[in-house]
Write a structure and sequence with these properties.
- The chain is built from five helices and nine strands.
- By secondary structure, it is an alpha+beta fold.
- Helix 2 packs across helix 4.
């Protein structure tokens, strides 16, 4: 089990549901949703950070890796062609409360349109930091292209906690 950083502990607040951090990517055309779903499953199985859950321990809340709760790609066909409708759908997806103690504290949705699609990733704020999204989406792109996925997908949670303790001790 790994300790939470001070920032993560504030975000978790004893595993209370929280609105998620989101990343949105505009994709040209209509991607193969089944291939994207397989790529997401492959990445989620390799990325420890997507399997972290907060559990209570004698020393307070800690991260623990669980093998259950891997999310699947959700696909929504867009009926609207206007930008406002797309933004409204993205906002609704990002506002769904996510828990970090049960299930999967993240979701990925493909908004499939006629001429363009959008990939929406939402995660509990205690799960990832803003710098963790780039390796995650690089790995997803590699998996979608049937390339080997970089094994260095997991955040170094221990290093984050150590850096947090060091900065507080100054």
């Amino acid at each position: 089990m790994l300790p939470l950083t001070e920032t993560q502990a504030r975000a978790v607040r004893h595993a209370v549901p929280a609105s998620g951090r989101r990343a949105v990517f505009r994709l040209p055309g209509v991607p193969d949703s089944e291939r994207l779903a397989r790529a997401l499953t492959r990445v989620a199985e390799q990325c420890q950070a997507l399997r972290w859950r907060v559990v209570d321990s004698e020393d307070g809340p800690r991260y623990q890796v669980h093998e259950y709760g891997l999310n699947k790609l959700e696909v929504i066909d867009l009926d609207v062609a206007d930008e406002l409708g797309v933004l409204s759908t993205i906002s609704m997806l990002g506002d769904r409360p996510l828990r970090i103690d049960t299930g999967a504290p993240w979701a990925m949705t493909l908004l499939r349109g006629q001429t363009a699609s959008f990939l929406v990733f939402v995660c509990h704020p205690g799960l990832l930091d803003r710098f963790s999204l780039q390796p995650l989406f690089r790995a997803l792109s590699q998996a979608f292209s049937d390339e080997p996925v970089d094994a260095r997908l997991s955040l170094d949670q221990q290093a984050l906690a150590s850096a947090d303790r060091h900065s507080r001790s100054r």
